[in-house]
Design goal:
There is one protein chain. The protein has 322 residues and is α/β, with parallel strands linked by helices. The chain folds into two domains: 94 residues, Arc Repressor Mutant, subunit A (Orthogonal Bundle), CATH 1.10.10; 175 residues, 3-Layer(aba) Sandwich (Rossmann fold), CATH 3.40.50.150. Helices cover 43% and strands 16% of the residues. The protein has 13 helices and ten strands. The strands form two sheets. Strands 6-5-4-7-8-10-9 form a seven-stranded mixed beta sheet, sandwiched between helices. It has a three-stranded antiparallel beta sheet with strand order 1-3-2. Helix 3 crosses helix 4, helix 3 packs across helix 6 and helix 6 crosses helix 7. The protein is elongated and about 70 Å long.
Length: 322
């Protein structure tokens, strides 16, 4: 890459890095070559905005552009940068790894690359692409998840804590002996009852996560989906889950699905969130304080169109001394 000499070149280089979106862009494009549309989906910005920032970085000499048909792909090519540019980027890059948005971008890029692979299979592989479309047409897109749930023991009683409108209970009911749908909101319980009308093995109980009106050791498993961030005392809620769990019959397991730690403080005001997600370290502390062993925490691969923070699934079992 050739640049004019002089102070203006230095100023142009620095100016190109002066926008947070462009910094996130460079962080992405040093690990993966992406099209404009893919950048737009990962950063969750309009495609026109993505194009504008890519143009600034390209004109500043930070990016290499490759044309493939009608699509343009961009990447950072370290070997094409001058030593000054590499030093400048290294200094900036070293401050970015702790930024929450950068972590969310890294999670979303996996989903975008996976979609690209699927698109390639559909385009180039007649058999594979055709089978996916045919399978969806014949059987729908939900049967795989429903089939996997049948691995749950039929004898289990499962508490759906903070059941909301009953979407989790609806999935569990055909697979286990009983589902106890617990929520402190009467309107939510009414919506869940209406949704699950006809499911004879679902019992609806009004109560808070921190004080469930359930007997000790009365359920085999507890499921808590997108609830813990609303609770003032998450450790107390987990302690309550441990109380109602029994560890015989292979049970004593709690599944918590919630948001990874993020910085979207507006959620406190718009949706009443008490916690801005949870780090893996914090989750381990909470589970142990609640009477569980160390949980198995896994990041859930998000969908590229999803606009919320990344999610995790944490599975813990009641500690032996319980």
């Amino acid at each position: 890459m050739k640049h004019p000499n002089g102070i203006q070149t230095v100023l142009d280089r620095i100016a190109a890095l002066s926008d947070p979106i462009r910094l996130r862009l460079l962080r992405l494009l040093e690990t993966e070559e992406l099209s404009v549309g893919e950048v737009s989906r990962v950063l969750q910005i309009p495609q026109s905005t993505a194009s504008r920032h890519l143009k600034v970085l390209s004109e500043g000499g930070w990016l290499v552009r490759r044309q493939l048909g009608t699509a343009s792909y961009y990447r950072v090519a370290p070997d094409d940068l001058s030593s000054d540019e590499r030093s400048l980027w290294a200094a900036v890059r070293g401050q970015m790894d702790e930024i929450a948005e950068v972590g969310e971008d890294a999670r979303r890029i996996g989903a975008v690359i996976a979609e690209r692979a699927t698109d390639s299979v559909s385009f180039f592989g007649r058999l594979a692409g055709g089978w996916d479309a045919l399978r969806g047409e014949l059987f729908g897109n939900q049967f795989t998840a429903q089939a996997l749930l049948t691995m749950l023991p039929r004898t289990w009683t499962v508490a759906d804590v903070g059941c909301g409108t009953g979407n989790v209970a609806e999935l569990l009911a055909p697979c286990v002996n009983e589902v106890i749908a617990v929520d402190q909101s009467e309107p939510m319980l009414e919506a869940a009852e209406q949704r699950l009308n006809g499911a004879g093995n679902v019992r609806f109980v009004q109560g808070a996560v921190e004080a469930m009106p359930l007997d000790d050791s009365s359920v085999d498993a507890v499921v808590c989906v997108l609830v813990l961030h609303h609770v003032d005392d998450p450790a107390g809620a987990l302690c309550e889950m441990a109380r109602v769990l029994r560890s015989d019959r292979g049970g004593g397991v709690a599944l918590v699905v919630d948001m990874l730690a993020h910085t979207r403080t507006e959620y406190r005001h718009t949706m009443g969130h008490k916690h801005l997600g949870f780090s893996e370290e914090r989750l381990c502390e909470l589970f142990c304080e609640g009477g569980f062993g160390k949980p198995d925490v896994r990041t859930i691969r998000g969908e590229s169109q999803a606009k919320g923070p990344g999610l995790f699934a944490a599975v813990g079992r009641v500690a032996e001394e319980m």
